[in-house]
Amino acid sequence: MPRPIFPFLVLTSSLLSGWAAAQSATNIQLILDASGSMSGKLPDGQTRIASAQSTLTQFLSGLNADSGLNVGMRIYGAGLKAGQQCEDSVLVTPMKGFDKTALQAQVNAAKPKGATPIVYSLMQAAADFPKDNSQKVIVLVTDGEESCGGKLNDAVALFKKLGIDVDVRIIGIDLNEKARKSFECVGTFENARSGRELGEALNRATASAQTGKYAVSGPKTAGAGSNIAIKWTGPNNEGDYVTIVPKGAPIGQYKDYFYTKNGNPGSLTVPLVAGEYELRYSSEKA
């Protein structure tokens, strides 16, 4: 069985549709942590901010753009907003089109300085998105947990109150166990310990937004041990497969799977242990 290099990851509750082709636009907001702790070093010797800047710059260079893609950026902790550190969160590039050069310039200009107002930033982000049925994605890159007393559940509640259906992806940079656990209640979380892992996580977080190249869909819930039909969108390269794994499983882990060459839709058997699971499209040649 080949080790997957580019798994497509989707989940909000149990099993769900990964990409809605009927949505005419996709709005992605990248939220970058520029708090003081980002000056610390990763196990590979690179500072957290340098790793994030390099990886985000490369990621933006490779992001597939089309007329319906809008990418914006919010930065917190960089001292860009006068006043209280816990309100230092600024939308530096709005979600209007995809200005790659402007986004990369903002990324590389960020200087780690202040606090980590994650909840405040997420609640501000709620006002950044258009009030329509477009696909909405937040990708938060951070090296720490909330430091301003905010409650992540409050941010989630605000999105629900406003009727905003947003896919929140949290990418931690070498987080400790306490910080990792703090994100269990919101979105999908991954922890990266190097620039390479950060890049892979960014690709997974935005895969469904990249012109629908990779997508999987299945029922939102299913009985333990039952067989479910899974539709997929992808290049169908030799060795490509779709699998079902526990939420947050490491790259390379798989349970039941089917090769895409065997047809669309394919069939998977739901694990016997109750819980939350993810569908992943994996390709060696992505």
UniProtKB/TrEMBL annotation:
Pfam families: VWA_2 (PF13519)
Biological source species: Deinococcus detaillensis
Alphabetically ordered keywords of this record: Signal
InterPro entries, A to Z: VWF_A, vWFA_dom_sf
Record's signal peptide: 1-22
Sequence ranges assigned to domain VWFA in this UniProt record: 27-173
Identification of the protein by name: VWA domain-containing protein
